[in-house]
Write a structure and sequence with these properties.
Blueprint lengths: L7 E4 L4 H6 L1 H11 L3 E4 L7 H10 L3 E7 L1 H6 L1 H11 L3 E4 L9 H18 L5 E4 L9 E2 L2 E2 H6 L8 E2 L3 H6 L4 H5 L8 E4 L1 E2 L8 H4 E2 L8 H10 L4 E4 L8 H15 L1
Parallel strand pairs: 1-2, 1-12, 2-3, 3-4, 4-5, 5-8, 9-12
Antiparallel strand pairs: 6-7, 10-11
Length: 257
Amino acid sequence: MTAIHDKLAVQLYSVRHEMAEDLEGTFQKLSDIGFRNVQLDGMRGNNRAEVLRLLEKYRFNVIGMHIKHDRFLNDLDGIVDEAYFFGCKTIFDKYIEEEDQNLAGYEKTKRTLLDAVARLHGLGFRVGLHNPEYDFNDRVYGRRVMDYLTDPENGLCVYAEPDTYWISAAGHDSVEYVKRYSGRAPIVHMKDFRSGFELEDMANNLVEIGDGEVDFAAIIAWGERHGVEYYCIEQDRSDLNMFESLKKSRDYLLKLM
């Protein structure tokens, strides 16, 4: 059985600027903090062979990959090639582009993702969807977008990657909301939220884990009973040095665990 502390991960979007400036230094600092699991989010201008070399040097386990929406529409073979290259078969549509945030776009997205599931599940792939706040409030045929897109169909399932910050920003209780994804959310994005500010004011409403209002102890307790494999820290921005921010969030979760 995997120890709880081994289930913590970091989404590399958090250190996108740092990766662009100093790839090895970034990986070394993440390793020094104690991270062993990472979720990829693009190469940030680096050669993918160099990214893989350093992932292996610092003994990181790639637990998932965020892929741009248009690549699922137009480059599934390229996604598969990249997934095999990094040894990771858990792939997520990063977010639905603005031009597809409408009925036709959501229908197309569901068809596209289910087609990817049908083509790839026999190879051991898991296809999922990450989401911003509109997916929790906009509706398609009476269903919230995130639910519509992840509703099983003909025995096929698009996995959910619930994000505690965006659920909270949408006005929902993140602990209650994730319960609908029992067994269908191998990775949960751990991000804290502080109310009282405009949605766009991420300088104030997005805070380090433990400084906001999300009940992470309850999220973890639920996750341990319902199939969550990794709790992935993502910090879009911070007033702290990003490595200090990630360490603070990781330390808080370790205390809970």
